[in-house]
Specification:
252 residues; eight-stranded parallel beta barrel; binds 2-phosphoglycolic acid; 11 helices; alpha/beta
């Protein structure tokens, strides 16, 4: 099964208005075919970055969303607001939301469903902590986090799983090619059991966690690795595009 890789930049709480626009323009200028490319800036720059990527193949993403349509939810952003700005993909369950902001599985699950039900692409993030890996709980943790998805998932084109071992995020310590492939294959098997082999074969599974130009080719060449979710290295167009180019090379 040939899957087109998806390489997405998660800018987290970085950039200013002008550096965000410059970065988006740089990504648009260097974007190549053969890979789907997306950028997820902070909420406040979505409009400006959306204008910078408009008319290009670069997709606009959001890092989070709230589960209610509107109302008294101070500080929160609804899915309709994101759609209004032409956002096409949204992250749910990023480890920083789970572990730094304290989001519970129930909320992650509702966010995932909110994104999917709105017709957008859901990037559902899963991954174990170092303590969980050391206690041999990686598969259990990932299986449980995949369980946050429900029977409502029917379209494999609008589901992306991002496997991001927490110990590899922002630490400079990436998973080895074999460690990534092992968990990615497990994720695909779990999706096949829960949904269908056909759905599992079509879902893109991104690797995230210290993905850099120099380790991208090897990681992205693994058979069940279909692109990446990139934090630090997505803040420079050059390094981000080098990873996208590695995804294209890996597909050959
Ligand atoms: P990193 O972040 O590339 O800086 O490790 C990845 C992520 O958290 O999405």
């Amino acid at each position: 099964m040939k899957r087109v890789s998806f390489v997405a930049g998660n800018w987290k709480m970085n950039t200013s208005r002008s550096t965000a626009i410059d970065l988006a323009r740089g990504v648009v200028r260097g974007a190549m075919s053969g890979v789907d490319i997306g950028v997820a800036p902070p909420f406040v720059y979505l409009d400006a970055v959306g204008a910078a990527v408009a008319g290009s193949t670069v997709k606009l993403g959001a890092q989070d969303v709230y589960i209610e349509k509107n109302g008294a939810f101070t500080g929160e952003i609804s899915i309709e607001m994101l759609k209004d700005l032409s956002v096409s993909f949204v992250l749910a369950g990023h480890s920083e939301r789970r572990h730094v902001l304290g989001e519970k599985p129930e909320l992650v699950s509702k966010k995932a469903q909110t994104i999917y039900a709105a017709g957008l692409t859901l990037v559902h993030c899963v991954g174990e902590t170092l303590a969980q890996r050391d206690a041999n709980q990686t598969f259990d943790v990932v299986r449980t986090q995949l369980g946050e998805l429900g029977a409502w998932v029917t379209d494999p084109q609008r589901l992306v799983i991002a496997y991001e071992p927490v110990w590899a995020i922002g630490t400079g310590r990436n998973a080895t090619d074999a460690q990534a492939q092992e968990v990615h294959a497990f994720i695909r098997q779990t999706l096949a059991k829960t949904y269908s082999q056909d759905l599992a074969d079509r879902v893109r599974i991104q690797y995230g966690g210290s993905l850099k130009p120099d380790n991208a080719k090897a990681l992205l060449s693994q058979p069940d690795v279909d692109g990446g979710l990139i934090g630090g290295a997505s803040l420079k167009a050059e390094s981000f595009l080098a990873i996208a180019a590695a995804a294209v090379a890996a597909a050959r």
